Structure formats: C-alpha cells, structure tokens
Automatic annotation (TrEMBL), chains A, B:
Protein name as it appears in the record: Thiamine-monophosphate kinase
Residues given in the record as Mg(2+) 4 binding sites: 39, 52, 82
Every PurM-like N-terminal domain range: 37-143
HAMAP family named in the record: TMP_kinase
GO molecular function: ATP binding; magnesium ion binding; thiamine-phosphate kinase activity
Residues binding Mg(2+) 1, per UniProt: 53-54, 129
Other information: Reaction mechanism of ThiL seems to utilize a direct, inline transfer of the gamma-phosphate of ATP to TMP rather than a phosphorylated enzyme intermediate.
Keywords for this protein: ATP-binding, Kinase, Magnesium, Metal-binding, Nucleotide-binding, Thiamine biosynthesis, Transferase
One GO biological process term: thiamine biosynthetic process
Organism in which the protein naturally occurs: SAR86 cluster bacterium SAR86E
C-alpha cells in the first residue's frame, strides 16, 4: 500500500495497523510472491487469471450510516461476485480506500469486514492505497478459473434460463435496515451479501453462460441476451422471490448477487442432480431463443417494461 | 465494464462510446483472452504478474479544472509508475471512473487521455466500471516483470543511491498550470507525467532496489530505507533540481515519478555505460549504510527534517 498526500506517519500507521496482514495465511497457497509494502504485489500464477474491478460509493452503493464492517465486506463481495459469475476461485484482491477522515473505531470495523470475507473465501488483500476524499471503496479481485470459464456470450437457442436462488433479499434487507438499523436475519443479506463462488464453480461444468444479478434481473439478463446474440423468453412469474408483496422491487433492486445462467437442455438434469448433492437448487425461469428479450408476466407494471424490446 | 445504478441506456452508451476498444490492438500480444464486456477480463499469462492500484481524487491529486485528457492520462501514469519502479512491462489496466455527471466533451477528452497512454505504453484497458459520485479515478495496472524484479527491500550497505532525473518538474508544472492554465513545455510534466518504464527495465539488471518518487524524495527514500533495513547518507544538495529557487518544494512536492534506486558499487560503471547508450543518466546522490536516514544539506529548512531520524 502507498500513502498519498496526507500526514505521513498517520497514514502509515493506519495502513500498518488496519490494512496489513489480511488473509496473510493464504498468500503462499494462492501463489502470491509479494504482498503489501512494495510498489506492486507479485503473483506467480501458472493458470489463467480472472480480473474485475468494482467501486462502491457512499450514498450510491451503501449508506454512510452502515457499520464499517459491512461497508468493507459488501465492497469486496460485490467485486467477488464477478469472479463467481465466471465460475472462478478467489486468488487475491487489491483495495483502494478513499475516506474523508480517520476514526479508529470505524477503521477497526472496516478491518474486521475485510478479515471476515478474506477468511470466508480464503484470499488475501495484497495491495491498494489509502487516500483522503469522499468515502468510496474500489476493489479489484483476481480469480483462477475452473476448466470452463463462464461467459455472458455463449448462450444458445434452446438453452434453459436458470437462477441460483430467490431474488429480493437485497431489497428487503435494505428496506429493513433503513427501518431498524441493526443486523438481523433480514438485514444480513444486504449488509453481508454472499458471493456465489461455490455455486459458480458447480455450474461451470454445465452452464453455457452466466452473469451475476447486481442491477436487477431484467437489466442483467439483457446483458446476457445482447452478448450472446440470442433472445430469451423469460417467465417472470416463475422467478422465485423473497417477498411477493414487493415483487417489482425484488426484481429491480438488484444487490442479490444471485447467478443467472443458461444450461443446454440435455445437461439440465445432471446439473440439477449435482446441485442437489450440494443442497443447492436450480430455478428454471425461461428459455433462450428468438431475437429479443420477451418478458411474460401477469404483473402489469412489469409486462410493460419494453426498453429492451 | 459494468454500469451501476443510473439510467441503463445512457451508462451503456457512455461505456460503449468512450471506454471501449482502448488499446484493443495490444490485447492479443499482451495475452488478454477476454476484455471489456463480461463479468471479468481473462488473462492468459505464463509469466509472473505485477499488480498495483492507485486512486486519484479531484482536489487532492488533480484539479477539477484540468483537461479531462490530462486527468485520465495522469491517473493511469501514476499507477503505471509503480510498474516502472519494479522494472516491469505494462500488460493491461482496469479503470474505475466515478463522476458526478456526464458531459460528452469531457468524456471525449478523457477517452483521448486513455488512448494516449495506452498507445505510448502498448497496453489495453480491459475492464473496470463507471459509477456516479464525486470525481475520482481508480486504476489497477498489471505488469510483466523483467528477469529481475526490483524491490524496495534489497538495498545493501555500501550500495550507491541513484536518481533517474532531476526533481521538481511536477511542482513547477503544477505552479505554472495554476498560473496560466494551459499546456506548454513547463506544465506538460505535471499534466502528462512520464512513467519511467524503459528506465526501470534498463536498471532492473543492475539495481539492488528501487522506488518511484510520488510523494517527495525524503518520504519515498524512507520507505526504501525501512523496507531494506539499512540506513542511508543522502547528499541532498547533490539531488538535481529543475529549479533551485524552489528547492524545498521541488524536493517535497513529489509528482515527478522519477526512480530512486540503489546500485552495488561494482555495478555502477556498467549501469552508467548502459544508460548512456540510451541517452539516459544516473545521478548518484548518496550511499546506503548505518541504521538511519541521514540528510546532508546546506539548506537549513531541509537539514532540520528529522521525522525519520
């Protein structure tokens, strides 16, 4: 890490005390030759590498009032979700923390969040920087793909459109957090979203394409449709939701980080068997084909979404 | 690249029009299997990889009033400078652009700056994201090391402390730009700082350690001293400056991105010969040894810097 602009000693002590040594036990096994402390980190990777960057801005992607532990965890999880969508394994991450001022308790919470996700996914923080400015966190994750890399662009006509889990836990958790402001079973999926790494690895052997749902199912499905050059018939009413009362919000809000993917029909049963053996499900919600994205739904307001048609 | 939050179509059109296809001709030769457009980029690298992240914040690292072309170029150059300090070769970069609003002319300039540095160093933009928020740019650069990787930690007692070029062009350029607000010979080094990639590659065969000077020579030298666990006698008055009248500022301001490095005495003459053959110089400004950083200088204000002693 490298300090910028502000008082040297304080910047250094912050980096040393709060941003160093996170996931250090995973450095060697993940092929990291050199971590925080030099101009660059050094990776000794024999395999291909996945890389993705995601920036989270206070007031846009998270509430300033949220616990620093959650802000840190969420910022890494949303980036990590892109590795999951490719069916990859986490290797390491860089983090750039921009914050207006230093508060030891906030930084302690922030470190706790980084340690939490680092431990969960066995990958270390290997670099980045700490600068003064409006609160935001930019995370770059590195991943190692499985044998098959899941792309957005390989869906074929006839492939079945699948979803990893019900949508809406992000919206419901957000709504509840704004109301009560504490961590509980309902707010946890928003405060500590789960990157679907293990799910992504399982489906990587079966799926033809995949994307993570960060911006709402219609929007992310439209990426998959566009990149694959094949239309889709989406049975929106078949999409499992956490809360039917807020159907539209659960579908549009995003922040669920579930995986949306396509599977050739002949592989569907073996995929389902495989998922069941891991106590995971596969929700079939449509079929690929035609030239455009067609949304079948009883919900009037949703049926009228036509900005992709 | 992936849009976030804001109006889909506009975000997509911005990414497509202004942030795609930058350095596309370098994708294949640099081992990039997949670039912008999916959840991750995919690198097929057989060598070790260098990685570094640098974030530039409006009002902290650059002036909002600066040309967007310069803001883009500078943001990438400062990150690229970390690759130079390791003696590496640019491979690719990710860019996260956070901006409060969209202006086509500004974005056109920003794209121009990205294309400029991408062309100069033959490396492509392979991913990142575009989000709404206070203007700042986070860049993650990937590099391929030469046979020897230059670390901050390998300086030995007796090694000669060297500098690539005179300091102060950043400060003088900044001062002049604030005064006249145009691009000229004086402001160029600030608006478009040069990452010392070729210089770093040349010295990588001779130097024992290196660091780029982004935060002022004393501060960056202190990193090298600390990491190497060896003191240094710095002849501050031997440090070549762009402008003696502003000696202190030239030494403290940073933003020069020159390389500060150590060379074993027996290798110095062959390094100098090698550099001369490329019309480059090596300024010897001190010697490593002892336990602390000792600054020898006639300038009173500088002699009194004692926060590393």
């Amino acid at each position: 890490m490298k300090d910028t602009q502000v008082n040297i000693s304080s910047e250094f002590s912050i980096i040393k005390k709060y941003l160093s040594g996170i996931g250090a036990s995973y450095l060697k096994i993940n092929g990291i030759d050199l971590s925080i402390g030099d101009d660059c980190a050094v990776l000794a990777t024999k395999s291909k590498l996945l890389i993705s960057t995601d920036t989270s801005v206070a007031g846009v992607h998270f509430l300033k009032s949220m616990p620093a532990e959650s802000i840190a965890y969420r910022s890494v999880a949303t980036a990590l979700s892109d590795i999951a969508a490719m069916g990859g394994n986490p290797v390491a991450f860089n983090l750039s923390l921009v914050m207006p001022s230093f508060e030891s308790s906030w930084m302690a919470g922030f470190r706790k969040g980084l340690q939490k996700i680092s431990r969960e996914f066995h990958f270390p923080l290997i670099g980045g920087d700490l600068v003064k400015g409006p609160l935001q966190i930019s995370v770059t994750v590195l991943g190692k793909p499985e044998k098959n890399i899941l792309l957005r662009s390989n869906a074929n006509p006839g492939d079945i459109l699948c979803l990893s889990d019900p949508l809406g836990s992000g919206f419901i958790g957000f709504k509840e957090y704004k109301r009560i402001g504490v961590l509980n079973k309902t707010t946890k999926p928003y405060l500590f979203p789960a990157a679907q790494i293990s799910y992504g690895k399982i489906i990587s052997r079966f799926a033809s394409s995949a994307i993570d749902i960060s911006d709402g199912i219609i929007q992310d499905l439209s990426h998959l449709v566009t990149r694959s050059g094949v239309g889709c018939n989406l049975d929106l009413d078949k999409v499992p939701l956490v809360n039917q009362k807020y159907a539209k919000q659960c579908l549009e809000f995003g922040d669920d980080y579930q995986l949306l993917y396509t599977v050739p029909q002949k592989k569907l049963s073996s995929l389902q068997a495989r998922l069941n053996s891991f106590n995971k499900k596969c929700h079939t919600i449509g079929i690929m084909g035609g030239k455009k994205l067609v949304i079948n739904s009883k919900i009037e307001s949703i049926k009228n979404w036509d900005h992709f048609q």
